[in-house]
Amino acid sequence: MGFEQDIKRMRLEKGLTQQELAESIHVSRQTVSTWETGKNYPSLEVLRSLSLLFNVSFEQIIFGEKPTMADNKEVNIATTIDTDILLKHKYKRISLFLGVILSLVAIWAITLAIGYHNGISQIDRFNPFLQYQVGYTKLPNDDVINPRNRINRGYWTRWFSDNEMGTSWSKLTVTTGLNPGLKEPYVMAYHKGSYVKIARIVPGEAVNTVSKSNVAAINQLAYSKKHDNLSVNASSEEALKQTLKNTVHFSQAIQEMVVE
After folding, report:
1. What's 75's DSSP letter?
2. pTM for this one?
3. What is the dihedral of CA 198, 200, 204, 208, to 10 degrees?
4. Where do runs of H (alpha helix) occur along the chain?
5. Are the C-beta atoms of residues 215 and 136 closer than 8 Å to each other?
6. Do residues 156 and 174 touch, judged by C-beta distance below 8 A?
7. Helix count (H) and strand count (E) of the chain?
């Protein structure tokens, strides 16, 4: 007997209508009808469901006969197919899990990059790829740094020199309070990216001459209205000013552009 006769016989023996059989294995009645007329054949997963429903072996569902002792000595086809189906589902779950992990890693990396590029201190604070460093800048006047300032409440932003070569700069927002009376006050900031862990006012003699020169050069370019001692032409000067205005990190020797 062929599959179409077998499936109909087993359905009738179990006392099921085509509709009842279809509902039991979650297919349509028309699908069951195409099986019994030989117009269609179920998938492996459906065959497995039919095997469980009618309580017959997988081989009997497929070949229409019970397995012999000799057949049992061979690799059981039902077990093999069941294993293949289980592995297929397992691989799908693993692929889905890996996909989620990779997506989270990508989102994490993009978030860190955006945080660094835009100077978001709370993101930089937890960025494992950034290291703490010390930057220096000249302390602005009391009107800017006064905690009673209603506009900024004592928080102010300046470019800090992060190395003596004058090639690494960070635009940091800090609060220090008023100048305690130092004649030449500077600010030392311990920061990671745009995140400032601590900032304190230090006397000018505590800052080396090279760092002071670097700070003076960037202040001349970024904050001074007169740039008579710049060694760049007007178009280059404007481009640099826009760059310093729109970025929070800068890697260029500013001092080379200023004639001392």
Report:
1. P
2. 0.61
3. -10
4. 3-13, 18-24, 29-36, 44-54, 58-63, 69-73, 77-118, 121-124, 142-145, 209-222, 234-246
5. yes
6. yes
7. 11, 6
CA 56, distance to chain mean position in Å, is: 51
Mean pLDDT, the chain, rounded, equals 84
Instruction: State pLDDT tens for residues 59-82.
Output: 777 776 555 544 544 445 556 666
Structure tokens at 244: 């310093």
pLDDT per residue over 198-223, tens digit each?
A: 999 999 999 999 999 999 988 888 88
Q: Which two tokens stand for residue 143?
A: 């009107």
Q: How confident is the model at residue 120 (pLDDT cuts 50, 70, 90)?
A: very high
Contact 132, 197 (CB under 8 A): yes
Report yes or no: 244 and 226 within 8 Å, Cβ to Cβ.
no
Tokens of 96: 């889905």
Distance CA 90, CA 84 (A): 10
218-249 confidence digits (pLDDT tens): 888 888 766 556 666 566 777 788 888 889 99
Q: How many CB atoms lie within 10 A of CB 100?
A: 10
Q: Which residues pair with 183 in a beta bridge?
A: none
The CA distance from 181 to 153, in Å, is 20
Task: Count Cα atoms within 13 angstroms, Cβ side, for 222.
Answer: 25
Secondary structure letter of residue 207 according to DSSP: S
Strand partners of residue 158: 172
φ and ψ at residue 50, rounded to 5 degrees: -65, -40
Q: What are 126-135's pLDDT values in tens digits?
A: 999 999 999 9
| Residue 68: Cβ-neighbour burial (10 angstroms; 0-12, 13-18, 19+) | exposed
